[in-house]
Structure formats: C-alpha cells, structure tokens
C-alpha cells in the first residue's frame, strides 16, 4: 500500500507524532523550519528529505523561523519493507540496508534530493497505482545508493538494537 500526499502550505503546523507506516517526507521552500526526529533537532534549508521506518520514532516539522508562505510537502507512506520476504532478494540489498538505518531517521543531502526531485515532483500525478509504486521503488533505489546520507536520532533514543 502506498499513500501519497502532495500539499502546499502557508505554514507548517503538525503536532509531534509517530505511526506504524514507513514515511518518506520531502519539504521544499522551507528554510527556517525546525525538524525534530527523535532526539535530533535541526533547522532545515530550502529542501529536506527524510525517511523514517520506526513506528516508535516521534517526528515533527515546525514553522520555527520559516518565512515562506509557499512550503510544499510531499509525504509518501508505505507498508512494505523490512519484514517482507520480497526485500530479502539480492536486488534490494541497498534498499533493505537503508530501510534498516531509517529506523533512526535518515536525512538525505542536497545532491541526492536533486537526483530524485523530478520523480518526487510527479509521483502524486501518476494515476496508475502500479506505475506509482514502480516510480517510488526507483526513488528508494536511487536514495539507497546516495552518499552523505546520515542518521538523525541516536541509537539509544530510537531504541534500535545494533545488528537487528
């Protein structure tokens, strides 16, 4: 299952939350927004892309010092991944590793964001759900090969067991 929301906002206002689904969250025109993922608190630039795969990891994007009235947020929530036998297959090794690391929250650097920007930008417009899923898997594949990706929450805060 794949849920895609593409929203334009005048302000960023969500309560801190967590959920059972995995989430890839992209934000643009959001310089000054404060992102909280677990015990990581950062003020973001114009673009932000974060992957979260832990049902216990609280997260929020807050208005903070953002002056933009044209913030765009693309949220993709999905139910497949770490526990699916499908992702145990060799072609998905990098994606599986990335999803595992994303239990602490992963933030992607600007070059990685730019590599998937066009695909993210068009994802919500794809009517055929199969095609949308294929494009999303391609996005995950590209992101899983990106350099400079870093985790957000500390291992202890995210309650991640090393090697699990």
Search tags:
164 residues
In short:
With 164 residues, the chain is an alpha+beta fold.
In DSSP terms (H or I, runs of 4 or more residues), the helix count works out at: 4
Strand arrangement in the largest pleated sheet: 1-7-2-5-8-9
| Shape call | globular
Oligomeric state of shown chains: single chain
How much helix is in the residues? 25-40%
Q: Percent of residues in beta strands?
A: 25-35%
Name the helix and strand elements from N-terminus to C-terminus, one letter apiece.
EEEEEEEHEHHEH
Q: Got a strand count?
A: 9
Distance between the termini: 25 Å
Largest sheet: 6 strands, antiparallel
User: What's the rounded overall pLDDT mean?
Assistant: 92
Low-confidence stretches: none
Radius of gyration: 15 Å
Structural class: alpha+beta
Give your account of this protein's structure.
- The protein is an alpha+beta fold.
- The protein has four helices and nine strands, in the order βββββββαβααβα.
- The protein has helices spanning 93-101, 110-123, 129-144, 155-158, and strands at residues 2-9, 22-28, 34-37, 40-43, 47-52, 59-62, 71-78, 106-107, 150-151.
- The chain has a six-stranded antiparallel beta sheet. It has a three-stranded antiparallel beta sheet with strand order 4-3-6, with no helix packed on it.
- The longest helix is centred in the C-terminal third of the chain and has 16 residues, at 129-144.
- The radius of gyration is 15 Å and the shape is globular.
- The two termini are 25 Å apart.
- The model has no long low-confidence stretch (mean pLDDT 92).
């Amino acid at each position: 299952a794949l849920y895609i929301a593409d929203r334009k906002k005048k302000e960023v206002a969500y309560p801190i939350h967590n959920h059972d689904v995995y989430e890839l969250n992209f934000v643009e025109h959001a310089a000054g927004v404060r992102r909280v993922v677990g015990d990581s608190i950062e003020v973001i630039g114009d673009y932000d892309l974060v992957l979260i795969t832990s049902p216990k990891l609280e997260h929020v994007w807050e208005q903070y010092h953002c002056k933009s009235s044209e913030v765009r947020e693309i949220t993709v929530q999905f139910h497949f991944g770490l526990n699916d036998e499908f992702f145990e297959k060799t072609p998905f090794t990098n994606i599986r590793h990335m999803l595992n690391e994303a239990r602490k929250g992963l933030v992607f650097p600007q070059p990685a964001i730019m590599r998937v920007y066009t695909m993210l930008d068009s994802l919500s417009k794809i009517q055929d759900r199969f095609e949308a899923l294929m494009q999303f898997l391609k996005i995950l594949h590209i992101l899983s090969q990106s350099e400079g990706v870093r985790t957000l929450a500390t291992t202890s805060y995210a309650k991640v067991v090393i090697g699990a």
